[in-house]
Design goal:
The structure is a single chain. The chain is an alpha/beta fold and 666 residues long. It has 5 domains: 177 residues, P-loop containing nucleotide triphosphate hydrolases (Rossmann fold); 76 residues; 159 residues, P-loop containing nucleotide triphosphate hydrolases (Rossmann fold); 88 residues, no CATH class; 78 residues, DNA polymerase, domain 1, CATH 1.10.150.80. It is built from 27 helices and 16 strands. It has a 6-stranded parallel sheet, with helices on both faces. Helix 15 links the parallel strand 9 and strand 10.
Length: 666
């Protein structure tokens, strides 16, 4: 049995801000964690530290996340840190587990079936009301029903509240008609003895409100709560969280208001930004050290937020300087896709793995030309999004086929058996030339094949053991990671990171999207761009096409969010010559601090040499030093205003100053 280190060693592994967050074990705690600042590391070490010191009983801690993958990762880290027994679940999985226990034992009632999709029942409800709907209308009405439920609106008060909130008319129906549809939808749910995902939370909240016994048992089980991605909670989730707490204050929340991008689904950052209002004595800790992205990427991300007046933390990169962020415009969408494919080819040939590259866009319709360009270049790719992996029809068929094959298992190697079974369903070692459904089906089967190989390598010695291992993955919702370049919408890229990121289609009308009509909606689009930028570790390219089609009207311009950031023709020339230097207003907090430190050094030198300060080094050169932070003489020589004579006079002193300014990564 491995021996876990002592409690204090858990804190020694953290940076000062992470350590402060992890050592605050009792009372309300709010951690404002910027992108790439190691929030999961901080909160898992906090929980492990609480367990190691005896402050927490492991089974009394509930860590709440928003995805099963995040919950799985958190559990793995906690086990590694010696905190076995802690529960990490999504809001829905925690509530469903509680419902599955209390409904049969306390009320002698079965748990209703949970429907995967609202669409069929919404269509049925519309048919009963004589409302003609197409697929798009059903989608919009399903989203509106979900919105009303997470806002805690009932069918009876929907029309009044929707009008007051300025909600539009989904599928062209007025608010009264939508209220009738919601009512009939609930009737159809009841007749089917089913519930949707929002009902899981509503039902559990209702049980705790109506039954003191249920509330008492839940609160005696869980005494300490940690909520990740707190900027994304809805009023419904907050209501259930409050009921779990029951007036207690043993709550730690972690989030970033700058990454609030799901307001359209009912999420709100108000609970995060207003945490001190609800808990006046709460400890508030900011994580600002970015261990993901280069200073170049972080500087752009900070500028995007600062220019929009967004609430968020000012990130300070802990990574070495990297390549400059690239800005490119193209004649049309096809040319943009071809240009991206060419650059990806260059990166892959240079040693960057395809899995470490992503192309991100605002809407899924933008992926088609990129898919065509990547396929033409012979680059493997996967499109992220759509149905949940284990719910896809082809995946369910494949698992059923493997289960049947396990009953008649042969002496043939397990991998060969799987290849044969999946081959009968459309899998092949090489990707098909076709696009669309054929390609998507192959991608699913290829991902399942990759997962099977990994599980076989991990010890699944028979087809039966393999099916069992895959079943456990399916039960936890832990989908396999697919291979190749990732194509994803900005929304689905949240929480992920890649070595190289290409943000395409950054034109007005797409970012911000033309549907964003209000200032609040436009602000969310800005945050969405910020999220996209902060996915990049080292390489980042921003681009847009001036026209949609070849030879089309070139009337597009780059996004308003990039005003003052998109290089002009003059800046492009300076950049090519290595002369481009940011203004003082463009400096980040860390860069500004370094700039002032360099000015103090310059003043001391000027006094010692009895000369005017600007003759030592100009402000322009000091700003360039603060942003580029060269690490050697070769890097110094590339800074405008520093030649051989300056290097001979001040080179060693400058490098020492710049080295001191770089915060070490713990």
């Amino acid at each position: 049995m491995s021996k876990h280190p002592g409690p204090e060693s858990l804190l020694e592994a953290l940076d000062p801000e992470q350590r402060e967050a992890a050592s605050q074990l009792l009372g309300p705690v709010c951690v404002l964690a910027g992108a790439g600042t190691g929030k999961t590391r901080a909160i898992t070490h906090r929980i492990a530290y609480g367990v190691a010191t005896g402050t927490y009983r492991p089974n009394s801690v509930l860590a709440v996340t928003f995805t099963t993958k995040a919950a799985s990762e958190m559990l793995q880290r906690l086990r590694h840190l010696g905190a076995r027994g802690v529960q990490a679940k999504t809001f829905h999985s925690a509530a469903l587990k509680q419902l599955s226990y209390f409904l049969p034992t306390e009320f002698s009632r079965p748990v209703p079936r949970v429907i995967e999709l609202k669409a069929p029942l919404v269509a049925q409800a519309a048919a009963r009301l004589g409302i003609e709907v197409d697929r798009a209308a059903v989608r919009d009405l399903s989203a509106e029903i979900e919105w009303s439920k997470v806002q805690l609106w009932t069918a009876d008060d929907y029309s009044k509240r929707a009008a007051k909130a300025g909600r539009g008319q989904p599928a062209g129906l007025d608010h009264i008609a939508v209220a009738r549809l919601i009512r009939v939808y609930e009737e159809v749910l009841g007749e089917s003895a089913a519930m949707d995902f929002e009902d899981i939370l509503l039902a559990m909240a209702g049980l705790m409100e109506e039954s003191p016994s249920v509330a008492r048992q839940v609160r005696s089980q869980y005494r300490h709560f940690v909520v990740d991605e707190y900027q994304d909670v809805s009023p419904l989730q907050q209501r259930l969280l409050d009921l779990w707490l029951g007036g207690r204050e043993e709550l730690c929340v972690v989030g970033d208001p700058a990454q609030t991008i799901y307001s359209f689904a009912g999420a709100t950052s108000d609970y995060l930004t207003g945490f001190r209002g609800r808990y006046p004595k709460a400890a508030v800790v900011k994580l600002v050290r970015d261990y993901r992205s280069t200073p170049q990427v972080v500087s752009l991300a900070n500028s995007i937020l600062r220019r929009g007046g967004e609430v968020g933390v000012e990130l300070v990169s802990q990574e070495p300087s990297g390549p400059a962020v690239t800005f490119r415009s193209f004649p049309d969408d096809a040319a943009e896709a071809a240009g991206v494919a060419a650059k990806i080819t260059e990166l892959i040939n240079g040693g960057t793995a395809g899995e470490e590259i992503a192309v991100l866009f605002r809407t899924h319709s933008q992926s088609e030309p990129v898919e065509n360009a990547l396929a033409s270049a012979g680059i493997a790719y996967q499109v992220r999004g759509g149905a949940r992996f284990f719910a896809r029809r082809e995946v369910r068929q494949a698992i059923a086929s493997m289960r049947a094959g396990a009953r008649a298992e042969t002496s043939e190697p397990v991998e060969a058996q799987v290849e044969q079974l999946l081959g009968g369903l459309g899998w092949s070692p090489e990707a098909p030339a076709e696009r669309g459904a054929v390609r998507e089906r192959w991608e699913s089967l290829e991902a399942l094949m990759t997962l099977a190989r990994q599980l076989i390598k991990d010890g699944a010695a028979s087809l039966g053991q393999l099916v069992e291992a895959i079943g456990l993955r399916a039960e936890s919702g832990h989908a396999p990671d697919a291979s190749g370049v990732t194509l994803a919408s900005l929304h689905s890229a949240k929480g992920l990171e890649w070595e190289a990121v290409f943000l395409i289609g950054l034109a007005e009308g797409l970012v911000p999207i033309s549907l964003a009509a209000t200032p609040l909606e436009v602000a969310e689009e800005r945050r969405l761009l910020y999220v996209g930028i902060t996915r990049a570790k080292r390489h980042l390219q921003l681009s847009y096409a001036k026209a949609r089609t070849v030879g089309g009207n070139a009337n597009r311009r780059f996004s308003r969010f990039l005003n003052g950031l998109w290089p002009t023709a003059e800046q492009a020339v300076k950049k090519a010559r290595g002369l481009e230097v940011p203004t003082k207003e463009d400096l980040t907090v860390a860069e500004l601090a370094l700039f002032e430190k360099l000015r103090e050094w310059r003043l001391e030198v000027a006094r010692a040499e009895e000369r005017r300060a600007f003759t030592v080094l100009t402000d322009l050169t000091l700003r360039a030093l603060a942003t580029r932070r060269p690490q050697d003489v070769k890097g110094l020589a590339q800074v405008p205003g520093i030649g051989p004579a300056k290097i001979e006079l001040y080179g060693l002193e400058l490098l020492a100053l710049l080295k001191d300014a770089r915060t070490p990564n713990p």
